[in-house]
Automatic annotation (TrEMBL):
It is found in: Membrane. PANTHER family: [F-ACTIN]-MONOOXYGENASE MICAL1 (PTHR23167:SF35), CALPONIN HOMOLOGY DOMAIN-CONTAINING PROTEIN DDB_G0272472-RELATED (PTHR23167). This is MICA1 monooxygenase. One of its GO terms (molecular function) is monooxygenase activity. Residues 13-154 form the BMERB domain. The keyword Transcription does not apply. It comes from the Eukaryota.
Length: 154
């Protein structure tokens, strides 16, 4: 087994493990965001009740509650933005994995001797190549979405 094949195999495993670790990290963060959303909702409900029920409350207290409510809304919006970014990252990881698998299949067909390829092999190779181009285009779209989002936030 040539050294370059072992190296490629090792790098592929490392890349796959990195994707797996990223996916786990993203999943944990999404769960944390969900818990934080629920907490913010509960705090918001309490503040809204206080604002509606307390007619004899001093104006300073109402202003403070309103500021707290606005802060909660702002925090929720930032979490929603982060959640959106994480969902895009999940899609990107899925596409990256899909691209790796297609690339692996394509290498199999490309490494075959041209004279040994059957017509079915050639068709399969072209289909895999088309799928690979489609995945790359989808990843490109995700990158453009992220860039547009980043620019709009600035």
């Amino acid at each position: 087994y040539p050294t370059w094949k072992r190296t490629l195999t090792r790098r592929a495993r490392e890349a796959q493990m990195n994707r797996f670790c990223k996916a786990q990290t993203i999943q944990r963060r999404l769960e944390e965001i969900e818990v934080t959303f629920r907490e913010l909702e509960q705090q918001g409900i309490k503040l809204e009740k206080l604002l509606r029920d307390e007619d004899g409350t001093p104006a300073d207290q109402k202003t403070q509650w309103m500021n707290q409510l606005l802060y909660l809304v702002q925090k929720k919006n930032s979490l929603m933005s982060e959640e959106s970014d994480l969902m895009i990252a999940v899609q990107e990881l899925k596409l990256e994995e899909q691209q790796w698998q297609l690339d692996h299949k394509l290498r199999y067909y490309m490494n075959m001797e041209e004279s040994l390829k059957t017509p079915e092999d050639r068709v399969a190779e072209q289909e895999i190549l088309a799928q690979l181009v489609d995945v790359v285009n989808k990843r490109n779209v995700l990158i453009h979405i992220q860039e547009e989002k980043r620019l709009s936030e600035l």
